[in-house]
Structures are given as structure tokens and as C-alpha cells.
């Protein structure tokens, strides 16, 4: 069955290694299209979003090999520039191939990537920005065709910060004619990893990690071997497992330097966190209220991808809490499911009011999207009794073997 069964109410005890970052892997795999040769990507997580990205690359004529967490992408035989609808539909991140394919082949046709339950996820800013780089885009009902003889650098003053748009413009700009300025650019660690990968391959990108990226177009990029950094959201999720259920865990390779806002809020809720050179030790259960409102925002603010997990921690903490979601318009989908477990949460607009209860009760609940689904597993670990979380496939999109990893941390959990 596409579900997990959790026997809750037990403290966690154990250690696990944090997987490579999904949101760094996807744009970097797209970036291999810019390089005519064989790139080797280490620490690439074995998750379904990466699986679908690799299938998409193969559908374009690339050869892909995986040996454990090492992925080799050979783009010498790149032959097509129209992406199969079923793959695009399955994974929104296919939009990241747009900039890279235009830079490599000058032509792309694809269906619109769908929205998802957390929001409409439009691509209007992607398309209007690429038009400014000399791309002709003909939009039809279900998709669009994009053509460009030679991408031209441009100076962008974007209306808002977008991770995906920053990534697409970087991929379009590195081989474009002239200079491109991207401002405000997203500052996420995953963008910094993409800049590192591209500069290692011979790109000329300045301003990594700042809100202003300057790209000087070059003629060619060379094949490289690059190691994907650890996933800060997966590390934060397992941190929240301990905060909700209690206990003591060690997260090997947790990227603590990329988790400042998350760790600050976690400590304010009463857990003890010790950052070591090879990871992070977490001790205790969250038992204090966060002062003020927990507001999501662009990096380095508190990440929207950690919002559902902290809602669960608040719900199990016995303390009141308030969460304001500023990035996506519909990212409180787990509230009705948490209420089935006895949580007391109400939503008004983009704010959730959590009245923490010491005791959540096991129930059958349904995952509706990636991070909310993982958060329901955390709630089940804290709840008294047995829970079943269905639609596990949503969680498998971003978490490598979550059942095995949580078992390493002492959870009583099994596939159902
Ligand atoms: C990336 O999505 C991440 N996905 C998301 O993680 C993450 O939540 C998000 O950035 C914000 O940090 C990947 O990296 C694969 P945006 P992205 O463009 O690029 C609006 C996860 O759980 N917008 O920064 O799609 C958009 O609707 C996922 O791993 C437009 O209106 O996010 C949103 O409200 C979920 N028009 C806001 O901007 C556009 O053309 C920010 O979205 C593009 C975006």
C-alpha cells in the first residue's frame, strides 16, 4: 500500500546521515545540459523527483547512469528539445530545463508544468524574463514553444524574489552574449550550489549568496565532478521529529551553516542543539512557545518548506503559536489532517493559530503534498497510539527512504 504505519508516543534515539539536497540536485542536473560531455554528480539523492528529472534528460537523448548516489550524465547525444508531457506533468521542476535547453539547442517546446496543492505556481515571470533575453515564445493553450538564435544578456529588476526564476536566468545567462544582472536574486543555499557548479565548469558568476548576481557570458563550459550539499530541509524535518516526539538524535552531515533561522526558532522552543563539525546533535522536546509570529520568507528568513513541520511541533508542544505563510497561497493543507489527530488549529487568510496540546492521538491521515506529508509522519511520532499516513508517494518525492531513516533514529514505523 502507498502508506506508512507509525506507532507513536515513543522518544527518538539514534543517528542518521542527511541525504543530498533535492532542491540543489534538480537545477544542477538541468545545468548538465549546458555542458557537452560527461558530468559526475555525487551525493545525488535517490528520490522520485530526481528519478523523473533523469528520465526527462534521457528523453532528450542524454545517457544517464547511477551508481549509488553517484549520477553520470552524458549529454553528447542530446538530440531532442521537446519534453514529453507526462514527465513535465509529473514534475514542476521541468521548467528548470527551459533556460538550459534554450542555451544549448536554441529551441524548446513543452506543456505548462501544473500547479500543485500549495499554490498555482505560475511561470509568467520565467517567460517574460526569457523574452527579455531574446527568446521568442509562442504560447498555446496547453503549452508553449520557445526559440532563440542567441541568448543575449540583460539587466533584470525582478518584481519579487523567485528561486526558480533566478535558476532559469542563471542557466540562460552563463553562455549568453554579454552580461546579465539578476536582482533581487534568490539567496538560497541551493542557488549558491548551482553557482558553484557552474563556476567550476567555467562560468563567470559573481555575487553568490548576495541578492545581486552578475553573469559574464562565456563561450563554453567543461564537464565537471561535483558533490551535492546535504539537504537543509530534510535535516530540519528530522530535527522537528525530535522536537515533537522528544529524545536525543544525531544528524550526520546536517548543513548547520544553512539552517540558522530554523535552529534559532528550535532553540527558542526549548530544545538543546549542539553543532559539531560532522553534524548536529538534538536533545529534548519542544516545550516553550515561539515569541511572536513564525513568519516564512525568502532565505535567510525562515523557509516556507519548514512551515508544516514547525506547525506540528507547535501542535505537540502544549504551547500556543502563530504562523504566517508569505510565499505560497495555500500551504496550510495539513490543518484538517492534524485536527483529526486532536490538534487545535484555526486558519484565517495566510495565518494559522495553533493551540498546542500535550497529547495528539493516532489517526488515519492523508498526505496531500511533499512537506505536509512528512509533517504528518512527525505528528504521528508524537501522537499516542497508532497512525497511518496514506499517499506516501508525495513524501518519496523529496525524502530518501524516510521509513529506514526514521527507524535509524529509533522510530517505530513501517511501510503499510
Ligand atoms: C522553489 O520553488 C522550491 N522548489 C520550493 O520547494 C520552495 O518552496 C520555493 O522555491 C520557495 O523557496 C524547488 O527548488 C524545486 P518560487 P519555486 O519561484 O522556484 C510565485 C519543496 O517542498 N511565482 O521562489 O517554484 C510562486 O507562485 C518545494 O521542496 C510567480 O508568481 O518557488 C510563489 O508564490 C515546494 N510567477 C513565489 O513566486 C513565477 O513565474 C515564490 O516561488 C514564478 C514564481
Walk me through what this model shows.
The chain has 416 residues and is of the alpha+beta class. The chain is built from 14 helices and 23 strands. The strands form 6 sheets. Strands 21-22-1-23 form a 4-stranded mixed sheet. Helix 8 packs parallel to helix 12. The longest helix is centred in the middle third of the chain and has 14 residues. The radius of gyration is 21 Å and the shape is globular. The N and C termini lie close together (6 Å). The structure holds ligand EPZ.
What is the strand and helix layout of this fold?
Blueprint: E1 3-8, E2 12-17, H1 22-31, E3 38-42, H2 48-59, E4 63-67, E5 70-74, H3 85-90, H4 97-105, E6 107-111, H5 124-131, E7 136-139, E8 143-147, E9 155-157, H6 163-173, E10 179-183, H7 189-200, E11 204-206, E12 213-216, E13 225-227, H8 232-245, E14 247-252, H9 260-268, E15 272-276, E16 279-283, E17 294-295, H10 307-315, E18 320-324, H11 335-340, E19 345-348, E20 351-355, E21 364-366, H12 370-382, E22 385-390, H13 392-396, H14 402-408, E23 413-415
Parallel strand pairs: 2-14, 3-13, 9-10, 17-18, 21-22
Antiparallel strand pairs: 1-22, 1-23, 3-5, 4-5, 6-8, 7-8, 10-12, 11-12, 14-16, 15-16, 18-20, 19-20
The chain binds ligand EPZ.
Amino acid at each position: 500500500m502507498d502508506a506508512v504505519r507509525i506507532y507513536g508516543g515513543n522518544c527518538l534515539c539514534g543517528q542518521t546521515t542527511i541525504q543530498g539536497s533535492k532542491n540543489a540536485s534538480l537545477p544542477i542536473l538541468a545545468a548538465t545540459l549546458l555542458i557537452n560531455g560527461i558530468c559526475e554528480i555525487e551525493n545525488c539523492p535517490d528520490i522520485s523527483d530526481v528519478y523523473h528529472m533523469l528520465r526527462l534528460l534521457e528523453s532528450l537523448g542524454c545517457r544517464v547512469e547511477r551508481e549509488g548516489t553517484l549520477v553520470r550524465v552524458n549529454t553528447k547525444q542530446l538530440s531532442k528539445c521537446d519534453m514529453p508531457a507526462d514527465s513535465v506533468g509529473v514534475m514542476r521542476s521541468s521548467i528548470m530545463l527551459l533556460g538550459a535547453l534554450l542555451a544549448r539547442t536554441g529551441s524548446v517546446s513543452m506543456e505548462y508544468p501544473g500547479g500543485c496543492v500549495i499554490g498555482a505556481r505560475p511561470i509568467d515571470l520565467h517567460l517574460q524574463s526569457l523574452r527579455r533575453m531574446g527568446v521568442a515564445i509562442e504560447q498555446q493553450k496547453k503549452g508553449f514553444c520557445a526559440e532563440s538564435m542567441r541568448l543575449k544578456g540583460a539587466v533584470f529588476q525582478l518584481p519579487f524574489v523567485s528561486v526558480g526564476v533566478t535558476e532559469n536566468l542563471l542557466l540562460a545567462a552563463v553562455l549568453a552574449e554579454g552580461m546579465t544582472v539578476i536582482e533581487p536574486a534568490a539567496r538560497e543555499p541551493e542557488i549558491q550550489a548551482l553557482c558553484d557548479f557552474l563556476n567550476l565548469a567555467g562560468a563567470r558568476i559573481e555575487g553568490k549568496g548576495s541578492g545581486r548576481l552578475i553573469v559574464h557570458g562565456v563561450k563554453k563550459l567543461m564537464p565537471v565532478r561535483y558533490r551535492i550539499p546535504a539537504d537543509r530541509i530534510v535535516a530540519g524535518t528530522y530535527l522537528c521529529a525530535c522536537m515533537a516526539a522528544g529524545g536525543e538524535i544525531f544528524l550526520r552531515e546536517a548543513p548547520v551553516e544553512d539552517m540558522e533561522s530554523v535552529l534559532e526558532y528550535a532553540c527558542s522552543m526549548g530544545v538543546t542543539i549542539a553543532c559539531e563539525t560532522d553534524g548536529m546533535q538534538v536533545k529534548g522536546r519542544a516545550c516553550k512557545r515561539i515569541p511572536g509570529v513564525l513568519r516564512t520568507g525568502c532565505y535567510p528568513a525562515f523557509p516556507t518548506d519548514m512551515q508544516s513541520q514547525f506547525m506540528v511541533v507547535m501542535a505537540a508542544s502544549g504551547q500556543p503559536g502563530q504562523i504566517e505563510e508569505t510565499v505560497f497561497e495555500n500551504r496550510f493543507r495539513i490543518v484538517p489532517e492534524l485536527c483529526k489527530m486532536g490538534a487545535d488549529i484555526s486558519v484565517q487568510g495566510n495565518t494559522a493559530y495553533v493551540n498546542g496540546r500535550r497529547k495528539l492521538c493516532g489517526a488515519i491521515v492523508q498526505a496531500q503534498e511533499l512537506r505536509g506529508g512528512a509533517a504528518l509522519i512527525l505528528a504521528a511520532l508524537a501522537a499516542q497510539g497508532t497512525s497511518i499516513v496514506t499517499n506516501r508517494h508525495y513524501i518519496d518525492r523529496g525524502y530518501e527512504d524516510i521509513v529506514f531513516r526514521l527507524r535509524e533514529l529509533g522510530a517505530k514505523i513501517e511501510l503499510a
